[in-house]
Backbone:
């Protein structure tokens, strides 16, 4: 049979008009077998040893897409309906495909892959490609590529909780075919890609149906038969699609590896099998999700600075919350405490059907160790302590107080706590000047003050009900300095108009325990109300 669609086979000789693989190019393919099942079991590790099947679809159209080894041994196969599967195994545990679980598992796979190679391509559905160029220097020995692949497998199992198969070759197709081998990892030696791919069927190339039919009419059944055809003849009959298929069959990559842009956030979540009404069961599954989040951030050397919680409520409700943390942290107990306190204060109001946790990362604080100076604060412990205080007290009560630009002494502003680095050398002690410090009394205590020519001559604290913590003073005034007038916010509905005095009581007065004289106090009179108040005690 002859014609434009029937090229003459060249008799088995190797073509000379097509370039070979790029010298030095090495690609690793990571494949997660039974990806929908592993993604689901990653969020429910207690089901690893059970008979579990993951189904796609709903109702009678639901079909098994993956099953655990125990279920497969009982005869459960992909494509079975739930009724057919339970006819083989009545105690089969069924789970629907969960897009949130699969998205999180794919991100976890890529996170681990990026910790090994700077160029990683996301191929979707549990598949990723890594550029291994130059990475063999990190694994000196007889077979550095196998050592790297084994290290990557171990990291995926430990950090991403995923079991993977790996293949290494000079092209993405050869690496993916190698990753299908049960004896993983499989390394195809450089230059052996053509012979490795030759016995593989054409379906490995995923050609279009029309192109596959044309090749089968030519009598082409394997990649080796396609690779032996002259490239020019294939292109003249099949066009650009034929050029790409022919190059792939020869172990070449016509399309370069496309590295992905790392996402700015880390996401974990899942759909729940049953709606959760009480808080404790939800916190149990949320803790496992937070552990997976922190493991992923730890692999990048990051901590969580902002945490977002999105709840899917029954029947079609939503509950979204955002938690700003004072410092990046990876402490699971602290993050769980933040969720607990929020949900105890703001109940969702409906059963929870699913949830998503989104962590916005940031670089944790770094501390420089010193040989001779004092120890610096541990950044991780400091971030954990601040986050716990934040979760207990609230975001508006955690920070470092600073004096505000205002006349009233009680005015202050709260800034993020940024401890200064320790001095490089221990500072010398300087002789003191004998300056007094004032211990503020908050809230100010009401006083009964006797005046003469508007000057205080005696004072007495009124009953406060808390004499154990607050000073109780009474007696005549020995010296009074003042007044110092303060006016502020006169244009608002809460103006401040005060006259401040520094007073010293006569020795022997109640509260006056200074040698040679009574105690020193700072008091003021509110000109708007006429009340006298104790503002501080000099020490």
Residues:
């Amino acid at each position: 049979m002859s014609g434009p669609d029937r090229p003459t086979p060249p008799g088995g000789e190797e073509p000379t008009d097509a370039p070979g693989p790029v010298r030095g190019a090495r690609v690793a393919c990571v494949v997660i077998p039974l990806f929908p099942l592993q993604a689901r079991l990653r969020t429910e590790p207690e089901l690893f040893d059970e008979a579990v099947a993951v189904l796609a679809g709903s109702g009678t159209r639901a079909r098994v897409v993956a099953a655990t080894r125990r279920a497969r041994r009982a005869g459960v196969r992909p494509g079975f309906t739930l009724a057919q599967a339970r006819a083989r195994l009545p105690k089969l545990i069924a789970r629907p495909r969960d897009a949130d679980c699969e998205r999180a598992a794919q991100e976890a796979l890529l996170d681990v892959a990026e910790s090994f190679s700077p160029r990683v391509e996301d191929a979707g559905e549990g598949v990723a490609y890594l550029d291994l160029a130059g990475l063999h220097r990190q694994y000196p020995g007889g077979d550095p590529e196998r050592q790297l692949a084994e290290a990557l497998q171990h990291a995926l199992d430990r950090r991403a909780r995923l079991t993977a198969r790996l293949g290494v070759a000079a092209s993405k197709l050869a690496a993916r075919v190698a990753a299908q081998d049960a004896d993983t990892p499989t390394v195809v030696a450089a230059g052996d890609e053509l012979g490795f791919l030759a016995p593989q069927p054409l379906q490995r190339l995923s050609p279009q149906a029309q192109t596959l039919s044309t090749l089968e009419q030519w009598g082409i059944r394997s990649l080796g038969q396609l690779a032996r055809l002259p490239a020019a003849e294939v292109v003249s009959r099949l066009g650009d699609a034929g050029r790409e298929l022919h190059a792939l069959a020869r172990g070449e990559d016509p399309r370069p590896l496309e590295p992905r842009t790392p996402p700015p956030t880390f996401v974990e979540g899942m759909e729940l099998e049953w709606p959760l009404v009480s808080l404790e069961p939800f916190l149990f599954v949320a803790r496992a999700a937070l552990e997976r989040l922190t493991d992923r951030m730890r692999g990048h050397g990051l901590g969580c600075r902002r945490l977002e919680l999105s709840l899917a409520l029954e029947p079609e409700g939503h509950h979204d919350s955002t938690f700003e943390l004072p410092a990046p942290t990876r402490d699971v107990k602290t993050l769980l405490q933040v969720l607990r306190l929020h949900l105890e204060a703001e109940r969702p109001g409906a059963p929870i059907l699913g949830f998503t946790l989104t962590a916005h990362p940031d670089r944790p604080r770094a501390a420089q160790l010193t040989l001779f100076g004092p120890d610096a604060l541990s950044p991780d412990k400091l971030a954990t302590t601040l986050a716990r205080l934040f979760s207990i007290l609230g975001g508006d009560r955690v920070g470092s107080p600073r004096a505000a630009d205002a006349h009233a002494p009680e005015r202050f502003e709260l800034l993020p706590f940024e401890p200064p680095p320790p001095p490089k050398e221990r500072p010398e002690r300087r002789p003191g000047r004998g300056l007094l410090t004032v211990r503020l009394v908050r809230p100010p205590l009401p006083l009964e003050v006797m005046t003469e020519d508007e000057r205080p001559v005696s004072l007495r604290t009124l009953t406060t009900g808390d004499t154990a913590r607050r000073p109780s003073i009474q007696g005549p005034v020995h010296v009074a300095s003042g007044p110092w007038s303060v006016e502020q916010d006169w244009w608002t509905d809460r103006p401040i108009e005060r006259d401040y005095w520094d007073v010293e009581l006569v020795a022997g007065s109640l509260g006056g325990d200074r040698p040679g004289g009574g105690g020193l106090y700072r008091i003021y009179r509110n000109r708007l109300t006429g009340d006298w108040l104790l503002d501080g005690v000099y020490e």
